[in-house]
Amino acid sequence: MAAPYRVALVAFPGIRAFDVSVITEVWGPDRTDRGAPAFDLRRVATDTTPVPMRGGLTLLPDRPLGWLTDADLIVVPGLDDHLTPAPPPVLDALRRAHARGTTLAALCGGAFTLAQAGLLDGRRALTHWNLIDLFRAHHPHVTVVPDALFIEDDNIWTAAGTAAGIDLCLHLIRLAHGAEAAATIARSMVTAPFRTGTQAQFVEHPTPRTDREADSLAAVREHAMRHLHEPLTVADLAAHAGMSPRTFARHFTAATGTTPLRWLLDQRIAAAQRLLERTDLPMPEVARRAGFGSEVTMRQHFASRLATSPRAYRAAFSAGAPASAPAGSNPMAR
Predict the structure, then answer these.
(1) Residues contacting 333, CB < 8 A, separation 6+
(2) How many CA atoms within 13 Å lie on the side-chain side of 169?
(3) One matching Pfam family, short form (predicted)?
């Protein structure tokens, strides 16, 4: 049996309780009876003194900073006060971890901590949309990407606020362990298993303006999921919604934060991932069922969106594949 995937939650006074809860809920419970990977989540700090958080909560660290050398993934929670200085030993440990090639991830205002360490200078990063001006003012050498849920640069991941932290955590599960593992954990958390980092941080109309519009957009997404294997176009989806293509695209983007074409491609990639993990169907049949039309097209989209090939993905994540290798040797690790 493979060793559990080791995740470090970096703790120091001022970290945000919500982000701590997200990290703990994603990597903490034992879900191996449902087919999820085994994780070893540790709360890492400069010492074992209880870490105070807002609302009278405390977090009890269980490992010193030295444990970061054993971690496969290091996650930094956001901050209640986004200018809270991290302890110098924490910043030093994060710098050393990145130099070793360990994957780092920050949720929401946790990007401020990585920026304090100088790890984001000259790199692309993001944080909550309401903190972007503050972030730019204090860290002018970081290239801020304002309109996304999460982003990666040089094995450093940053995420937007609140729910986007859940999206990033599930995405990191997907990269290291496959789409089925991420879906299993998402089902346990009763949350959406798949929102891409390219989606907007917030949608134009969180509450649709009319029930008719809400029903039509929900119905068209359901229709598309049932007919992914067909050569659907935006015009086809618009016709199903009873709208012109331009009007449909505008309402769809406002309601979901992504375009119909990108959403459709995301669903097809996710469908192909499930087929590659669960079945031994030949590649042309996987491509057909996922709606790509040809293996060549599917391979091109896997390369551009997942930085791997369908065959490499199947080798890493199919039910008959060997247990997960360390992140550094995983074809999906970057």
Answers:
(1) 103, 175, 176, 327
(2) 30
(3) DJ-1_PfpI
